[in-house]
Amino acid sequence: MRRGVPAPRFASFERWAEHDSALAWDLYVWNRDLSAAFFADVAVLEIALRTGMHDAASAAWGNRWWADPDVRLDDRSSAQLAAAWSQLPPAVRRSPSGDDVPDRLVAQCTFGFWTNLLDTGGHTGVPPRRTRVDYEALWHGAFRQAFPGGRLQARAERERASGRDLAGAEDEIAFTRAWVHGVCREVNALRNRVAHHEPLVGGVPLPGRGRRMSPQDAHRSCLLLAAMLDRDLAEWLASASRVPPLLAARPGAPS
Known about the structure:
Layout: H1 7-16, H2 21-61, H3 75-86, H4 90-93, H5 101-108, H6 111-116, E1 123-124, E2 131-132, H7 136-141, H8 150-163, H9 177-195, E3 204-206, E4 211-213, H10 215-229, H11 231-240, H12 243-248
Antiparallel strand pairs: 1-2, 3-4
Helix pairs in contact: 1-2, 2-9, 2-10, 8-10, 9-10, 10-11
């Protein structure tokens, strides 16, 4: 273990363990197990998210919805879609009209791609034909249909925020593109954190927010996204996830 873990990486665990070497190793192993448990949950969520959004877009614009002129993508999304396309086997790319192309391409699109489709939208093209793309049109045109439980969950989250006396927080919670995007960004940040084997002990940094999300809140975000996508999926995930017992068994936590 000592030969395989770089000293700067392990130093973080020693700080969290207040320089108790035995506790630091326990935290390291616990962090590994927690990351694996989170990744198992996110694996289910990632497939559910892309399936729900692809199905919603297909219902509105056909199963090659990305090629519909009404579906305007910004440069970031177009680049991510092109990267996914480049990962397909050459034989598939030579037959873009094949029946299996939509499913193959969707399977190559990252969690970040689907999350970014819920963002505000950026620019496309180059000057003097550089224009702004408004993803609110995609939300109302199709993607809101991918989250049938969204309205109910937003109401529950408002009530939770109000009950915890989080001043002003409930005013920001509503079934909107921006709110759903925020939840997906949190799960995507968690996904990237565990995929790159970064520590969870100190929380998950949230890009652009200047704060970290605790592992407990990360689990809540996973369950929230699941409930927005499919109530039965959320119930299954809540019962099958290995995250809660690991959170309760954090080494060094008060018993």
